[in-house]
Task: structure prediction
Amino acid sequence: MYEISYAKFLILSLIQHDWKYPLHPHIMQIDHIGIAVSDLEDAIKTYEEILNAPCYKREIVATQKVETAFFQAGDSKVELLGATSPESVIRTFIEKRGQGIHHIAFEVNDIESEMKRLRNEGFTFIHDEPMPGADNKRICFLHPKGSHGVLIELCESIKSP
Result:
């Protein structure tokens, strides 16, 4: 008889579950996980091997002084972040904490209303207004002091006219 541990059963059940229910009426899903890397080219090769998929998009976000590389991972994405300048927040992050997970991004329907809702709940934001981000998104970041040390990004797709 085939035996499976409870832990394996639980993990397989979670992986195979159809998670279509929104986390909150305005927070739709995890959009991506941002990973800060020192060498973007090397990291792209590594994640192509890990995910067995090519990088589908690269983009420079001049306002953030960062270059991004995206990979599809199921319904979510992995975003590699490489600094394009010594003044980049990614370079500062890596110098302080090393390479690794930089942020978790949640897709929202209306970024302004989510910012208002979260401010009313006592959260603070790194910037007062949404700004342009990669992948045709408007973004903002919750200060990690209010979210147990995790940098949370809210992102809203820019609607095409």
Remarks:
- Residues 23-157 form a domain with the 2,3-Dihydroxybiphenyl 1,2-Dioxygenase; domain 1 fold (CATH 3.10.180.10).
- Confidence is low (pLDDT under 50) at residues 6-10, 12-23.
